[in-house]
Design a protein that fits this description.
single chain, APOBEC/CMP_deaminase_Zn-bd, CMP_dCMP_dom, alpha/beta, 8-stranded mixed beta sheet, Riboflavin biosynthesis protein RibD, metal-binding
Length: 356
Amino acid sequence: MTSEFSASALDARILNAALSAAHRAALEVRGSTSPNPPVGAVILTENGDICGVGATEPPGGRHAEIVALDQAGRSSKGAHVVVTLEPCNHQGRTGPCSQALIDAGVASVHYLHADPNVIAAGGAEKLRAAGIAVHHLGASGLLQWDSTAILGDELEPWLQATAMGRVHVTAKFAQSVDGFSAASDGSSKWITGSKARERVHFDRSKRDAIIIGTGTALADNPSLTARYISETGETLPYKQQPRRVVIGKSDLSACSNLQRLGFTQYPDIPTALTALWEQGCRDVLVEGGPKLLSSFVGSGYVDAVQAYVAPLLLGDGRSVLASAVGANLVDGMRLEINRVERLGNDVLLTMVPGAQ
């Protein structure tokens, strides 16, 4: 194999396999890196064998490329780098990854996303100027990798947050197939099955914060923790736990789970989002209830939607939203479906706002 991958089918498979490995590495650290992006990087030898894998460490730690280079060691010279984000080109708490790659003597760099951060961008140009072959996989036509990672593209919320200058908001809810989040008697546990609930907790462990309203906090007394069932049947907390955030002005009970575990409360949505951004959050999950979800939708702060849909007919009950989005079909919020997944007997629809 030459020092620069060609566009052959074999090389495309190598690149896609490396990119999949980079995404898996990024998924492992998602939720622990903000305000930095959860990036994955893979070092390939001249023969296309993986000799280093890295992911972004918590703030102040090494970036993904540095972790992968350290693992690869001397094998980095003449190697090929596959990374999910354009290598950075600025001096922050750590040095520029572009310079580290140049110093390591790599032959080529293949990156998936261009860096939207104007402070850190420019790594591709610097690498090219140093004589390193650089390829933008997202625009190359070689990319055939179909994301099978549990949460999709790990970088998407960070990319959007950086472009918007505010945290990325995912609105999540569970509903019956006819659109109710609770039965007419108010019962809602459990609309979805165990597989869907397992996914919710895994998802929580990968977010910077979970947001609910005071109504949900007072009615349900939630813990807002991320938990999993071990092989021995124990319920254990994930290592990574998101911030717990409550929006509203009502006081919570002194003996509530949130008071015991710790939470932050803000009077309204704009105040909460501004504060979370300043604290380094980039990716948050809103878990309702209906009034808060309606407020987020009405304020234009919903960037993605997760709808866990159970094959259950209720006919009446509590709606997912507390108020109408629009008076007619034209005024409703149209969504584009990105992913459809079956979780046991339930279906998870992952969507983003579409063209109106």
